[in-house]
Amino acid sequence: MAYTLVAMGHQVAKLRDLLDPQTPDEEVLRYAGENGFVLMTCNRDDFLSAAKISSHAGIIILIRRNARIRERAALVRLLERAGEEGIQNNINFA
Predict the structure, then answer these.
(1) pLDDT-derived band of residue 17, with 50, 70 and 90 as boundaries?
(2) Run of H or E residues at 16
(3) pLDDT (mean) for 41-65
(4) In DSSP terms, which residues pair with 40 in a beta bridge?
(5) Which residues 6+ apart lie within 8 Å of 78 measured at CB?
(6) How far apart (Å, rounded) are the C-alpha atoms in residues 55 and 63?
(7) What is the pLDDT of residue 3?
(8) Please, which residues have CB within 8 angstroms of residue 42's CB and are 6 or more apart in sequence?
């Protein structure tokens, strides 16, 4: 997904480059929010729960599909439909 986002002109930071992989979800969400990062994840349940107690800059919940191309297509449709204003500070599903 990172390649697709970069190709569309978005800046991408990978979690593994910023935080320890064992960092709890609440801390990941807090870090993203403090730095103005929209968080993209497939971990729907944990991050929806974390969003109830932590502020965030936006979350994209990527729904797993049987092919990566379908996941990319859903993400592109979301970004085109919602735009920055619809993504920031909201929880979106792609």
Answers:
(1) very high
(2) helix 15-18
(3) 91
(4) 60
(5) 60, 87, 92, 93, 94
(6) 22
(7) 83
(8) 61, 62, 63, 64
- Average pLDDT over the chain reads 91
Chain centre to alpha carbon of residue 55: 14
DSSP letter (8 states) at residue 64: P
Look at the chain and count its residues. Answer: 94
Tell me the two tokens of residue 50: 């974390």
Token code pair at residue 7: 């190709």
* pLDDT tens track for 78-88: 999 998 889 99
Given a cut of 90, is residue 53 above it in pLDDT?
Answer: no
In angstroms, the CA 80 to CA 84 distance is 9
Rounded Cα gap, residues 82 and 22, in angstroms: 31
